[in-house]
Each structure stands twice: as C-alpha cells, then as structure tokens.
Specification:
The structure holds two protein chains of two kinds.
Chain A: E1 2-7, H1 15-25, E2 29-33, H2 42-45, E3 48-56, E4 60-63, H3 73-77, H4 99-103, E5 109-112, E6 115-124, E7 127-134, H5 141-159, E8 163-167, H6 174-180, E9 185-190, H7 194-209, E10 214-218, H8 225-237, E11 242-245, H9 251-257, H10 262-265, H11 269-286
Parallel strand pairs in A: 1-8, 1-9, 2-7, 2-8, 9-10, 10-11
Antiparallel strand pairs in A: 3-6, 4-5, 6-7
Helix pairs in contact in A: 1-11, 5-6
Chain B: E1 12-17, H1 25-35, E2 39-43, E3 59-72, H2 82-86, E4 92-94, E5 99-101, H3 111-115, E6 121-134, E7 140-146, H4 154-165, E8 171-175, H5 182-188, E9 193-198, H6 202-217, E10 222-229, H7 235-242, E11 247-252, H8 255-262, H9 267-270, H10 273-290
Parallel strand pairs in B: 1-8, 1-9, 2-7, 2-8, 9-10, 10-11
Antiparallel strand pairs in B: 3-6, 4-5, 6-7
Chain lengths: 287, 291
C-alpha cells in the first residue's frame, strides 16, 4: 500500500483542488482529508458518512467554586494562562496537563472529558474517504489528523485499495507533520510568487527533516514565469523533481462552485494538466 | 493587552485573519500598514512568515524563543514511573534502566518536575524559534520564526506579541496564520478588531463560517474583506449580509494585482488609488471599533 500526501507550506496554492482531481483519476484509492482545522475536500466529494466517532482530546480542567478557596496555586502553576483572575478556566487555552488538579489544596479542580471533534469514515462517488472536523478552538489537531490517517489505512486494508491520497493542511507545524509522517511521497504544490518560493524552502526543509521523498508542482505558473523558472532551478539544485507546471484556469473556481472535480468539469486546460501530473505521480509511486 | 502610543492614546490592535489559507491576509496587512503613517506590522505566521518579502527592510534579532523541557537526574531517579504516569502527552517513557523524554511531545507544563518524589527532574530551555524586528526607522515591523521541524507555533507567537507590544504604536496590525486553530487564536486574542479575509468561493465561505465562530467566541468584532471579488459567486456576500457582518472592502479579481503580489510588490504603492482606499479602510475600521 502506498501513501501520497499533498502539502504546500503556503496556503491557497491549490492542494484541495488538485487532490479532488486525483480522486476522480485514481482507480483504487482512499481519500484522507487531513486538514482537520479547515477541511474543504468534502465540498467537492460530497461524502456520505458511514461511521462517525467522537474524538476525545485532552481533558479540560474544571474548578468547583464551592470548594475553591481562591488560594491562587492553580493560577501560579498554569503554564498556559488558562486560569483567569476569577478562577475560571479558559476552554481554548487549557491544555489538559492536570497540574492545577495536582496542586489544588482543597481538591476543587477535576479534569473533565472533552470531545474535541468528530472523525468520519465515508463513501464518495470515487471511493472511501476518511475525514474529520475539529471543534471550534480545540487543540490536538495533530492527534485527530493521525486518527484520520489510521481510519484511512484500515479502510484501505478492508476494501482492498492500495493507495491513500492525503489532502494536507498549510504550514509546517504539528498538523502537517502528522499528515506526512510515514508517507511514500509528498507532493508540494507551490505558486510562482515570492511568498510561494519562500515557503517552499521551509516546507522542503521540513520534508527533508523527516526524510520523506518529495516532488514539486508549480500551480498558476503563468502568473510569474520568472519565479516559475526560479522554482524549477531551486528544485534542480536540491535534487527535487518538478512533476508539474500548471497554468491558471478559471475552471478551477467554476468546478468548485459546481461541486465538481476538474476532470468532471472539463477535459482541457488545468484538468488535462492535472491528469498528466497524476500519471507522473503514479509512475513515481510504483517505483 | 492595551498598550499605548507615544501621545498616550490607546493603541488600536487589528488582527488580519482568515479561515482558508491563501486568501490575501498578508496582502491586506502589508498594504494597510504601508498606507498609514505610523502603523506597526507584526507577522504572526511564524510557520511561514511572508510580510518581509514585500518590505524593503533589514532585520535584527530580538531574542530566541524557548520552551522548558524536563531533564532527569539519573543519579536521583528511582524509575518509580510517577512522571510517566502523570504526563498527559506521553512524552515520558520509563524504560528498565532510565526515563526517556520524547521532546516533541512535551507541552512544557512542568508537571513531571512537580510530581517526582525524588526531586530528580529539573527543567532546561529548548530553543524552538526566534523573534526579529526591522532596523529601518520608517516602519516598525516584528516577525517570529518557528524552527523547521518544531511542532507548536503558539509559544513563538506569544513571545512575538510581547516583544512588539513593548514598542509604542498608534496602530498595530497582526498578520495571522491561516486556519482557525491555536496559532490563529493566539494571534487574534486581545485584538480590538479582526478583519477576516476571504475569497468568494465555496471553500472561502466554508472556512469563513468557522473563523467567524471562533472570533465571535473571542469577543472580537469582525469585518470581512472579499479578495479576488468577482472570481466566484455571491454566497459569501449573502452570508455576511444575513450575519450582519460588514464587508469593509472588496479587492477585485485583477491580474495586475496578482502579478504585483507575485513579485513581492505592495500594490497600494504601484496602483496609486489604492493607498487612499486602504486609508479609507482604516477609517472604516476605526468607526466600527468605536461603535
């Protein structure tokens, strides 16, 4: 079984649009939307949920005001600033470490189970999809991302599918790390802007840090041909294959509004380029 | 978080956020800061900072950002396992001959050190990033960088905001990271106003709804900017209308703007009518804050 993760460093380069296209082109794949914070793939793939499981994140501290003597030990020890001057716990800030519970002299603090999100295992018109939604302001997106990937692997094994395609989040932090750990290939979708070039350097550093093979695709390349060339040169210097140079196409937005993948919307333009890109990735994954 | 400007008036703190990545936060933050006379710009996207690419400036280090991690004194450790039992993040493993720390799982809560019955755990600092500022006098600019491979941006953002707030300013503009999780929340918390930048597409709308819910929970007033206006449909505009969220600016889908952006050129400096429009935007935000 192989795993392909699509990330970008910089946001808005076209990861989800491209992953949706791959979903339509792939034969035996399971989709995994690992952008649990702002998941969008379902807007194109329209999954029918078959199973949902609450995701239990870190517990939340809770102060019993009747027992609380306002000694301030919890406030003094909380490293995250989650205890207010009125001895309330800030839900978005509490990281569930249990130090306050430990130091409270009157046992006024207890830890309460916190459901941080929901994980879904679904079917789409192209096959199985594993996805999730993180609750508003909740932490532990890395753990939920890992759960999405675990569910995808189980689904793939169960249904005899041999490829998992992962739609990753932007950035280089914990959620991205959780999305790419252990994959066979990372596709980095970049754009020919100074921002894209700068962020590409950092995300390549991340992928290198974890020793994962990478390939790059330049999206909207015609916006700035000079920077497209710079990206191609930089990748050559770093021995990273450039597997696609795609052109800006309003069909990407039109397909999204129509709730379709690019291959369903048109056969020319960006859709055709995405198909070529897919063929190249399949070849790389087969090696 | 109120600080003050030189003349004693309270600083106006404006966060520029989004739900979806790539909607134009940095574009708006940079152009707004450059169009005002005395704004301070703070790049809080410490995973992938981009503001500096649009500014003709040099940077100098302010300080490194570190987090505390435990150090186990093997001479005192009795392998009782109390620290391992306590750690909610599975960052400690009690092996037969020693306790192993998995640094990247540690949340720096200090709990293990508290619970150790043998006083075998102390803490040391581990560097995860740094804060920098511009040296040029004509623009006050701060940014933070999370070291590649580190998991958590939030402590760098916290340190960055503290460093920036030490310097007085009339207006402080925070360029937020994308998304709606902890790094964005840390950036937006305490602001007087939050601008949510979106695109008029289904992805833009979906992620905007989440961002609105988060920012409302933080109690910060919201205004929306629709970037690449005209490139999609009007679902975002309709949503804002039904939610009573003002659309405070529309930036049209214009290839010139895209090309200037790609080359790192702030378009308000190359398309002159836009400088006034950003100043008007600031006046609009000021009105909304006073309301």
């Amino acid at each position: 079984m192989k795993q392909l993760a699509v990330i970008s460093g910089k946001g808005g380069t076209g990861k989800t649009t491209i992953v949706a296209a791959f979903a339509a082109l792939a034969r035996h794949a399971v989709l995994a939307d690992c952008d649990v914070d702002a998941a969008d793939l379902h807007l194109i793939l329209h999954p029918t949920i078959e199973r949902e499981e609450p995701f239990r994140g870190l517990d939340l501290a809770s102060i019993d005001k009747d027992r609380c003597i306002q000694c301030g030990e919890c406030l003094a020890h909380c490293r995250f600033g989650a205890v207010t001057d009125d001895f309330d716990i800030l839900r978005f800030t509490c990281e569930g470490c249990t130090v306050c519970e430990y130091v409270c002299p009157t046992h006024a603090i207890s830890m309460v189970e916190r459901i941080s999100g929901m994980a879904y295992v679904s079917m789409t018109r192209f096959g199985p999809m594993s996805h999730a939604a993180l609750g508003i302001g909740e932490e532990t997106s890395g753990l939920l991302t890992t759960l999405v990937r675990t569910n995808a692997r189980e689904f793939a094994a169960r249904s005899g599918r041999d490829l998992i395609i992962i739609d990753g989040p932007p950035g280089i932090g914990c959620p991205v790390i959780a999305a790419i750990t252990g994959v066979d290939l990372v596709l980095i979708v970049t754009e020919p802007t100074l921002s894209g070039l700068h962020d590409l350097t950092r995300v390549l550093g991340l992928v290198r840090h974890f020793g994962i093979p990478a390939a790059v695709c330049v999206n909207k390349s015609d916006i700035n041909p000079d920077i497209t060339d710079s990206i191609i040169l930089q990748c050559a210097a770093e021995d990273v294959p450039v597997v696609g140079v795609l052109h800006y196409d309003p069909a990407a937005t039109q397909a999204m509004i129509a709730g379709m993948t690019l291959p369903e919307y048109s056969e020319a333009g960006l859709s055709a380029e995405a198909a070529q890109l897919w063929t190249e990735l399949v070849r790389m994954l087969a090696r | 978080m109120t600080s003050h400007s030189e003349d004693g008036a309270p600083t106006m703190n404006i966060a520029i956020a989004s739900g979806k990545g790539g909607t134009g936060k940095t574009t708006i933050a940079v152009n707004l800061a450059l169009s005002l006379d005395d704004a301070q710009l703070v790049d809080c996207d410490v995973e992938e900072p981009n503001c500096h690419l649009f500014l003709d400036i040099d940077m100098e280090p302010v300080h490194e950002v570190s987090v505390k991690v435990p150090v186990i004194d093997e001479g005192r450790c009795t392998l009782c396992g109390a620290c391992t039992e306590f750690c909610q993040y599975h960052a400690l493993v009690t092996l037969p001959t020693r306790v192993l720390l998995l640094q990247h799982l540690c949340h720096s809560c200090g709990g293990c050190s508290l619970v150790c019955p043998s006083e075998a755990i102390s803490e040391t600092a581990r560097v995860i990033g740094r804060v920098e500022r511009s040296t040029n006098p004509h623009l006050s600019f701060y940014r933070g960088l999370l070291n590649v491979g580190e998991a958590t941006a939030t402590p760098v953002i916290t340190a960055l905001k503290q460093a920036a707030e030490n310097e007085k300013a009339h207006v402080r503009i925070f360029d937020s990271p994308p998304g709606t999780a902890c790094p964005m929340i840390e950036t937006v918390t305490g602001s007087d106003y939050c601008v949510l930048v979106t695109e008029p597409t289904p992805f833009g709308l979906h992620d905007l709804r989440i961002a609105v819910e988060v920012v409302r929970h933080l109690g910060v007033p919201i205004g929306v900017i629709i970037n690449r206006d005209g490139s999609g449909d009007d679902a975002v505009a309709q949503y804002c209308a039904t939610q009573n969220i003002p659309v405070i600016l529309g930036v049209p889908h214009d290839r010139r703007i895209a090309e200037l952006y790609s080359a790192g050129k702030p378009f308000s400096q190359h398309l002159p009518e836009w400088r006034d429009r950003f100043r008007d935007l600031f006046d609009r935000i000021s009105q909304e804050v006073r309301r």
